[in-house]
Write a structure and sequence with these properties.
Residues 11-19 have low confidence and may be disordered. The chain is built from one helix and nine strands, in the order E-H-E-E-E-E-E-E-E-E. The strands form two sheets. Strands 1, 2, 5, 6 and 7 form a five-stranded mixed sheet that branches. A four-stranded antiparallel sheet has the order 3-4-9-8, with no helix packed on it. With 127 residues, the chain is mainly beta.
Length: 127
């Protein structure tokens, strides 16, 4: 199949049990010859607040942004509130689960999803 995923599941309050705001992050997907790359915007989320799972061809990405104040500090003005991100993608293309990787920099999570050999394009010579 030409696409990595068929649908993205909208975030659901019932499945997370969180009380703060829950959002589906903005994302885009592009393909290289050997992999798909998924770029997900999760501003304000530290590495420790990111959880990525792949189960039965469903990729789930969660991110938690919290308000941390230094010891003894009081907030005088607050516009950034705690926020949770949830993105679910059903993968249509087989990926090599052992070689998945993720990097977080400048509020963008980049997932590298290498294709399994069977999913890579092949050239078939005509004899």
């Amino acid at each position: 199949m030409n696409t990595l995923c068929s649908t993205s599941t909208p975030a659901s309050y019932a499945t997370t049990g969180v009380t703060e705001s829950l959002r589906k992050p903005r994302y885009h997907i592009h393909r290289t010859p050997d992999a798909y790359e998924v770029h997900i915007d999760i501003p304000g989320v530290p590495k420790s607040g990111v959880k990525i799972d792949l189960d039965d061809s469903v990729l789930t990405v969660r991110g938690e942004r919290t308000n941390h104040l230094p010891e003894g500090a009081k907030a005088h003005h607050r516009e950034l509130s705690p926020l949770s991100y949830l993105l679910r993608l059903r993968l249509n293309t087989p990926v090599n689960e052992e070689k998945l990787s993720a990097q977080l920099a400048d509020g963008v999570l980049v997932l590298n999803l290498p294709l399994k050999e069977a999913a890579k394009p092949r050239h078939i010579p005509v004899l």
